Protein 1
Amino acid sequence: MNTLGQDLRFALRLLVKNPVFAGVVVITLALCIGLNTAIFSIVNAMIYFTLPFPNPDRLIRIYRTSPHAQDWPHAVGDYLDFQEQNQVFEQMAAFTFDSPSLMLPNHLAESLQGMRVSANFFDLLGMTPRWGRAFYADENQPGKSLVVMLREGFWRCRLGGDTNLLGRTLRLGTNTVTLVGIVPERIAHFRMWGEIDVWRPLTIQPADRERRDPRFLHVLGRLKSGVSVAQAHANLSALATRIAEEHPNSFNARENVRLKTLRASFSNSVDTARCHLMLAIAGCVLLIGCVNVANLQLARAAHRTREMSIRAALGATRSHLLRQLLTESAVLVGLGLGGGLLLASWGVDGLGRFINAHLVQIQNANFVHFDMDGDVLAYSVALAVLTALLFGLVPALRASRPDVHQALKEGGTTASASHAVRRLRGWLVVSEVAVTLVLLVGCGLFGQSIINLLRVDPGFQTDHRLAMSLRLPSQEKYVDAAARESVLRQLLARMQTLPGVRDAGFAPDLPLWEPGGSRFFQIQGRPPPPPGQTMLTYPETVSPGFFHLLGMSVQRGRDFTDQDTASASPVVIINETMARTFWPHQSPLGQRISTGHSPPRDWAEIVGVVNDVKTLSSSRPDQVLARSYKPFWQTSADRSWLVLHTAVEPESLVEAVRRTVAELEPDMLFNRVASLERFIVAESLELPIIVWLLASFALLGLLLAALGVYGVIAYAVSQRTHEIGIRLAVGAPRGTVLRLLLRQGMRPVWVGLAVGLAGSYVLMQTSRAVLYGIPVWDIPTLTVAIVVLVMAAALACYLPARRATRIEPMQALRCE
Amino acid sequence: MTPDTNHVLIRLENIGKVFTTDEVETHALSGVHLEIRTGEYVSIAGPSGCGKSTLLSIIGLLESPSAGEYRLKGEPVTALAHAQRARIRNREVGFIFQSFNLIGDLTVFENVELPLTYRGLSTAERKQRVNDALEQVGMAHRTQHYPSQLSGGQQQRVAVARALAGKPAILLADEPTGNLDSRNGEAVMELLRDLHRGGATICMVTHDPRFARHADRTVQLFDGRVVEESITAVAEA
Ligand SMILES: Nc1ncnc2c1ncn2[C@@H]1O[C@H](COP(=O)(O)OP(=O)(O)OP(=O)(O)O)[C@@H](O)[C@H]1O
Ligand SMILES: [Mg+2]
């Protein structure tokens, strides 16, 4: 213990006495640890967070699979069969999402994010209400479901957090509902269901009891204790087969169930792969930093041979010396860790604010935050310990074994570096160059793949488009479909004549998003598809002219017209992919399809084929879904997106649009107004962030590597001043000596490149899954990475070599 | 002569040392016999390169002999492991070097304390011993100075104090006056003679015949062999 205090005091004094050394090391470590901590806290929030529920491992999401998809919701009938007949779950619950409008006295209507849940939803999760109660079982029955629970944070900031409100009523849309409970805030993790404000009971109509379509229920279960996920899967899978036999329309031969822990259901494979790649890349930067610091330590250890020898002569054992050297490393790492944590918390804070700033306008959300929680701290501390060992141990092992007799009898200050140390330095350069090449290639490939995604032509135009979400108070004022159509047509007419507006149109879903859901369909005149070959389409709805409004093009047939109304015969426009997939050898025009009914009815005629649009948030935008579009005026919707094509900067029209809406119908719910470009940015906000992060990783890594190589060469050259002096004195031309030094300095760089090339190959092969639009051997990226790295290394060699050859021979000779 | 083995502190028998560098073998020592008894003051002399420092570093367990047997306090120490040698060095040997070899980043006090810190003594005891040792060499007033703030003579006295602090069985000094002017050199020699009179066992390498005379006995080395052992007839008063 005594020696520890002493080692510590000595270590601190050494740092104060060598502020440049200490500064460089601490800054390098702070940058590297900070970067890794920041990335980890993002990854942690994205994929490693713990669910705020007891025994979260037993919470299971149950999906339906088919040849088309892996995680689909269920039909009511199937869900009820599962719930009643399974033997593996303690409880099973279902939920869906909705967005009710909150009507407060003297306030404009406001759209909330909500969930409809089975009464046992909270009990299943293991969450007790903060105040009040959860839902009773009979509240899932129609007519008894007029109760609501609110999220604690929402209740506090919107309703003043008044517990007297429990038992009182609120107006949600046309319903008057009783507030019965407050849900703890911890349910609102941004990677879970998003910021849900209200929960209401899911009502299941007796008529739906046997429905096998549509499928919209998300299903969740809590495993009985002792039951494994595999056992549960076997049980449900057998049930699914039985249900499929009983109801040929539901689970057919190639559909099944898939179970995932609730925890895993919140992370998708693309995010997970991207997160791991980011962690690996950040790890490369840390490695480079460690090598640099190790090298600095080695150079310093050479200066301290004499000190170590004296200590050894006085009876310090090797472990004494090791302990002292490692204490010094630990102090450096401690300071680096402190700085790193500071940098990281500052960085993730800024990132969170940046993301929220982009999301707040269009999602009414402001909840993305990256906590520096216990896990993150543990990670950084573990990283720091690893770092201390990595950069401290090798130099310490060397320095703790001084050749005492030799070092002391000369009485000199520096013993020139031994062969072993020089070889070790060579290996440091090799590993530094290798890791840097892998880093550069990794950043290059990943960055380029992201840029490819950002460059994807969505198939529609985004500039000069303003989008907003509208909803009619349909259950009170506009119960009648004709009334809805009339007011929406008036709105459209007024918008089209608004100064600065070129065109206006409706679409209940914007085409930039993943479609809301799929439906089976049948083609008139063809036999129903055999089991396992269900035909699927993703239905959308648009108003006439909407394609043109978005710069899409109807390639065959016609667009919808104002005459395609509820009273006209049903029509549909399909996209190219759907046309190609289902009518590969003939024109689909004039063909009739029917969606989702059994037996089929309401045959709709295909009147046009429109170009494909790509889902921007997808990691594989080249995989286009078969979409079909119905005419807006045939659907009698009470809510929609309104999109304007503007002649002026779109967001400059927001006030005028708002006024127009209010003049026409003050009760119309109107929100999420922003330019289409803003929606697109928000949709894949992580992409530019990743690109920026990668660019800064690459830059930092390259800089550190160049500094590292510079340090090694500069030190090696300074050790050879005397030799260089002799060479110059005997008449060697400076150019020859310079070339000699460069050649020797670059030798480990070439070896490092070879090793790095092998590493890059492994990286390219293993990260295929997350790379989009990257060839198997990406020669240009490799070439650029190698050229940049070689240039940096050559510069790092050249500078000290040139300085050494500029010296006057006599001066060099006196040096020794 | 039948020496009382209890009083033989160091016994070297047939010691040889070969350095091998780049295929060249240097026989630094060969067939060296040497006994040093408790309380003796032995000086080692000889021309440059004859092996004096090598002999001293073998006695001080900094080097292992290539041949022969070395017993310290009757115990064979030739074949000991690294850590054990370090422990013995720490307890039994005090080194004084020509170039002082103080650590520049430690204060006078801490330099003297250094051998004690590798021993696990209490803080109080260390403090006591350091102050005693500095008292003995007349440097007690400079405990918080750094070596660079001291004259050469003062630095060497601190080095002597450091060698003393551990209460070693033997003090080994390799040309302790080599880097000092004659006045300071004499002062250090005077100090060593005082220590010897107080009972310390000393083995010192020196070129200077004046100082060699302080010793009880001079071992003359030539080309790695002991060529003469002479008893100093009269110690100067
Ligand atoms: N580490 C070593 N490697 C190779 N040879 C060595 C080594 N140390 C000493 N020698 C050789 O051993 C011989 C004895 O050296 P030593 O240092 O003991 O001489 P010395 O008597 O102390 O000389 P000086 O009076 O100059 O200090 C010399 O020839 C020297 O070159
Ligand atoms: Mg010598």
Note: Chain A touches chain B through 26 residues (CB under 8 Å).
Protein 2
Amino acid sequence: MDTQDDAELDYLQSGPASTSGRSDAEQLKSALMNEKAAPEILQFETDLVNRIEATMDYQDEQIEMLKENDDQKLLVEIFMSELSRIRYLLRAYLRVRLQKCERHVMHILDNADIAARLSEREAQYARDFFVLFGSHMKAAAANHMPEAFSSLVRQAAAHPAKDMVPAPDLDRHVFARVLEDRGNVTVDEEGNVAEFNRGDLFVIRYRAVQQLVAEGAVELV
Amino acid sequence: MAYCRQQQWPCTPEEMYFNAKDELITIVPNFSVPTENATCICISGEWGPFQPNRECAVPLWLAHTLWKRKRCSIRPPSWMAVEHLDAVLGLERQDASAFQPLPSHYIEVAHFLFTSGTDGNLPQEVFGDELSRVKDLVELVQKARWNKIMAGLATLQGAITVKLNNLAAMEINAVRPFFLGSLNMFYTYQRMEEAAIGGGSQLGGSLAPSTQPLQQQPARQLRRAGGVR
């Protein structure tokens, strides 16, 4: 837990130097913004979520203990309002990830390394959703079409590749803020480079910063 | 409908306000907390020390909670001093290509300080006599920056990487759909052009139509989810 001094003049350095100096709440907010802006699903922050859930439970207990003491009302109110804020962030994070699961469920289940980014419960959700979605689509539409065209993943049975799977578009542009100096980085296929210094804000294709986002050197806004 | 909205606006303005409430602001409490160090240990950090008539820095949501219960008074942030805003406005007007450094949630914080606490007159308390001057200055700074953004958008010609430092969160959110959407379309057109050029040169090279095996191209190019999904 950090104590913030001289906050008035610190607005220019409002971002921390590295992720290790941030509080859990800030990390959660950053993870939420990344998930909202990125076209594909990112790695689930298991440790962070577990720590936050544990802290929230502890805070709940604190509130219960303090409630019995009548002259601590102010502290109770402070704790409760903060708890509701953190709870909102956590819920929003989990909701965004579930939405992405639903949108690209076939793509996720087909690729093992993307499926590895889900938490266990999300993976179970994706599998259940796929079964329900698949059976509904089959019953409503696919089974009424000629045999050769009734697949959910191929345009026609003659095509060996699964070309009807909705996949995330990694070439969408995003706003990216650089958290660590990374020098020159290639930004497109022609080999153009841009210099990534801490605090820079770029509008860039997601594919160019995909790796950096996964490493935590760049955050999406 | 929810999906479409998500694509256009990852962050609603209400969510921007929520994020802005984590910005720090100085308060002078009139109470003290009976804990070790007189601080308040919350999930997001240790705030305090809360001692009567001693300044401390807390997040905006905490300051608002305390102010509503009349437990503190709020000091204006240093960047909202008249001289500082004057200087920033001058620099914004001079330098047509760069944005001046301002807190990334300056619009939300300013809006909060000017409008909330309608039953207790927060703005008057915080700024005193300079209230209208500060309001004007913030609005002028906002307008100057917005004009710069519009001018920059007008010069967009292709799918390029753009560097814009010091853009505020609200400004990013306001241009997000148009900016990103137009860059995405530029990129799509660029790819279509390259594909067309590539296909044309193949046909020119041989008399027989190119015998590409079915595996390499789908029979129908499906409309990919650029803006819909």
Note: The domain at 18-75 of chain B is CATH 3.40.5.50 (Ribosomal Protein L9; domain 1).
